Amino acid sequence: MIRSVALTGLAAMSIFGSAGMANAQSGELVLYCAADESICRLLSESFQRETGINVLMTRRSSGETYAQIKAEEGQPRGDVWWGGTGDPHLQAAQEGLTAAYESPMLAELQDWAVRQAESAGYRTVGVYAGALGYGYNTDLIDPNSENAPQCWADLLDEAYRDEIQVANPNSSGTAYTLLATLVQLMGEDEAFEYLTALNDNISQYTSSGSAPIRAAGTGESSIGIVFMHDAVAQAVMGSPIQTVAPCEGTGYEIGSMSIIEGGPNPENARIFYDWVLTPEAQELGAQANSFQVPSNVNAATPPESPNLEDILLIDYDFDLYGSSEERARLLARWDAEIGSL
Amino acid sequence: MKQVFRTINQVGGLWLLLGLTAVLILPWYKVAPPELVSGGALSDAALFQALAGRAWLWPPVLGILALAGLRVARGERWQADDLVLPIAGTSFLFFLFQAFAIGLRGPAIPALGEAFPAAMLGQTGLGWGGFALGAALVGIIADSLAARGFCRGERFGANAVIFVVALLLLFVFFPIIRLASAALFTPEGVFQPGVFIERALAPDLWNIDCLTGGSRCGVVINTLILGITSATLSTALGLALALLVARTGFRFKGALRAISILPIITPPFVVGVAIIVLFGRTGVVTGWLDMLFGIPPTRWIYGLPGIVLAQVLAFAPITFLVLLGTVEAINPTLEEASKTLGAKPFATFRTITWPLLRPGLAAAFLLAFIESLADFGNPIVLGGGYDVLSIRIFFAVVGARYDLGNAAVLSIILLTMTLGAFWLQTQWLGRKSYVTVTGKSDAGLAAQLPTPLKRTAYMVVIPWVLFTLGVYLIVMVGGFVNDIGRWDLTPTFRHLNTAFSFEIGERGLQLFGSAWNSLQTTLLVSAIAAPLTTAIGILTAYLISRQSFVGKQAFEFGTMLSFAIPGTVVGVSYVAAFNIPPVDITGTMAILVICFMFRNMPVGMRAGIAALSQIDKSMEEASQTLGANGFTTLRTIVLPLIRPAVFTSMVYAFVTAMTAVSAVIFLVSARHNMATAYIMGRVENGEFALAIAYSAVLMVIMIISIVLIQFLVGKRQLGRRAELQSVTAPTAAE
């Protein structure tokens, strides 16, 4: 009788207990992946195959991943945060959420990747780069017409009312990069005027950064503002998508990677960190339709990738726009002026 | 009798044994706490931790040792000793105090740091030892209360009541209170009660521009508009279905009932996705309409219309079941009398049937309204720019700016709305049972539906059936063709392969598919949660309907509270309460199981209470007169008689654990991801085919599991059916 109550109590407790035990296991890596699902999946599988270390991967958007790591600050559950725009990585570095690590692979990396690492005291490193732009559906917008969009300004055309999608900067690093890019390109007040005008043409602020281009690919909308490599990936997969590098110039992201401070498997985190910076690992991107420019100088850039040399790139101030205060300030202003419309 | 008595004492000793084990052997903390200056302790058990310098652990340790001393001094009847309750109670209070007062980063009260220098280092969450001691002290308190006449001196009853109350306090009230307190802090963590008012009155919550011709309403108003619209439509549809089944010669009643089960086992998001595939701007139906009638494709589906469509599809079956009960319970003699007196069929319907239906309609409406408030999956897929509370709460937590305080305020608003509706519902349900009681003498024939009404019902129901079939056709096909979104119907197993691929190589079986992790966790969590949920639900039902104890009404309200809380609120409150010591269980499987247990237990409890009210108490009294105690009576007499309730509870708990999303979305982790959370990620990212394929797999698993549960629980019941029927027949309409 009461014995059964006690047994039930014990059974319930064994759940607690097993929860407590789980942390002690080795041979695991908890990967927070903030890039596209397919590359996240491919990286985890390849790493698992190569090292036998079991990868537990969660894919979330950059903003969600950052919020998760911040929420778990007391007791981190993740080891490595791979991918997603560099800003939240820099912010996390500033707040001490991530750990400093100078990988032996640093010598092989592109300048921009190393600069990213240096500016954060080696708490993060660049793993790929990609320029911001947009893609449009060629079934819905004739690419040969004179009116085909070429610039940021073209997106304000009344013809595109409710035809454009972009992510919500509160949840997506892509959309925050757009916000920061426009502020740097146009000046802050002008950028918000532009976004207010653009709001009339936006049908939906999605929560995932690359979702807008998928909607454009299926024709649910005409234009998606995304990183150009995401637009290229849609086109490669057979969608009628034309990629545009805006004529006024555009910003870019340095997709980054950080080791989470106090994570459960620091050894494996460093093994993964070094492995993922090798040319072989970086070339996996093309297989998973990820057409970013890899950060290892020896890794071949996929032929489909938008060539960064041909794009008018602004001098993106990662230090300023990656900082917590600036980010919070810009997002608050976005909420007040755009989000509330 | 003597045998029984001995067991009681041995088991009373078992709590003591558990307590001693907890402080002497088991590791007190979940993970080793910071190293002390005096060097490491001999072991991780509480006694040695206390010796090594964590002096605040002495009161609970000494308490349990003192109780053990009492046992030795007083012998078998030690629990009746006057000292037991004060010692156990004080130890328990000290145990709680130290657990909450000294956190991960040191003491919450500075004075504690001065008293115990070691406290400055902080302590981690409770582990085996901590939880075992807590359970042991609660058990001893219950035993000694029983020895003082609590629950008529019945030890089983006292233990059960005290444990259920303790668990409810820990897993229902504590999170809610933690959450409510978060509402009083600014995002920077400064205590400032004024921010609550400021947040609660924010114009983006209460703006009513859209009603006065403006562009957009506040999120609370949006939520209300959505809830009222979809509850009204669901109720109307449910009524049409119920009347068609109960009051016409409609031929496909069985098929209709079968269809009405589908939404219950449908994972979230998939209906939303199917609706986009059908009615999105490039949707199939949209394409036909454009081709045949020249209606230009638009994006009307994103926003209020789409959410309402998806919710009506999901809730109409629920309102149907509620209203079917009401319609069938109406006493046909009244209608017959009306007809005999010369009233035309329509007049009879208007003056007799309709008034009798009204309580049922209100109940169905409020049920759908509550479901709509809590719905998370449909708004996030189909919402477009239409903001509702459940979504806003979600982004307050996982958005780029983590603002638990704001999430808390929004949660409290949502909870208030739900509780309001819930209170109204219980008011109406009270009247509904009145109708059922008069329906007992069911002589006479039920009136057929008047022809115009019948036609209307057909006109409403047939499009709904077609729509439902269309949606589920998409679900069945969508996962196994190239790209349903672009209407590329080349058959493929690509998506299934992405989700569930595996390799048998030199390292043995390796699961590479991205969905394996979440599928395993989901199955395991559901399989653990279903019996535990049922156990606590049925036990609570037994306590409420058969035991008498102080504070029973408050107890009943407490159990229903966990049912009324929307999932998003539960999720947020669990994160707020259980991410830090002492009960530090976020990121584990335990938190998922516990969340489901306390969320779904009221259904088993309600089913149990309903079943118990049909069983005469005299059988249990006979059992007790013959010397059986509470537990034996429950096991040998009550449980076999309420098997249908056990089945209902198991199925509900299992299916809900497989399909729930709003609560678990905050509780999943890399190690323990749930299927619904995984599917949501795919949907957000536009990978519809993968989401659909996975959902199809889940639905197949659920159907198999329901059959399996029926086999396990219901098989034995078959032999007793005749007997059971005779007991339950009078109220079978319930």
TrEMBL record, chain A:
GO terms for cellular component: outer membrane-bounded periplasmic space. Keywords: Signal. The keyword Cell membrane does not apply. One of its GO terms (molecular function) is thiamine binding. It comes from the Bacteria. It holds the Pfam family SBP_bac_6. SUPFAM superfamilies: Periplasmic binding protein-like II (SSF53850). One of its GO terms (biological process) is thiamine transport. CDD domains: PBP2_Fbp_like_1. Residues 1-24 form the signal peptide. This is Iron ABC transporter substrate-binding protein. It comes from Pelagibacterium lentulum.
Automatic annotation (TrEMBL), chain B:
Keywords: Cell membrane, Membrane, Transmembrane, Transmembrane helix, Transport. It is a multi-pass membrane protein. One of its GO terms (cellular component) is plasma membrane. The keyword Protein biosynthesis does not apply. It is found in: Cell membrane. Residues 220-425, 519-709 form the ABC transmembrane type-1 domain. The keyword Membrane applies. The chain crosses the membrane at residues 12-29, 55-73, 85-106, 126-146, 158-177, 224-246, 258-280, 300-330, 404-424, 457-481, 523-545, 557-577, 583-599, 645-668, 688-713. Its main location: membrane. One of its GO terms (biological process) is transmembrane transport. Belongs to the binding-protein-dependent transport system permease family. This is Iron ABC transporter permease.
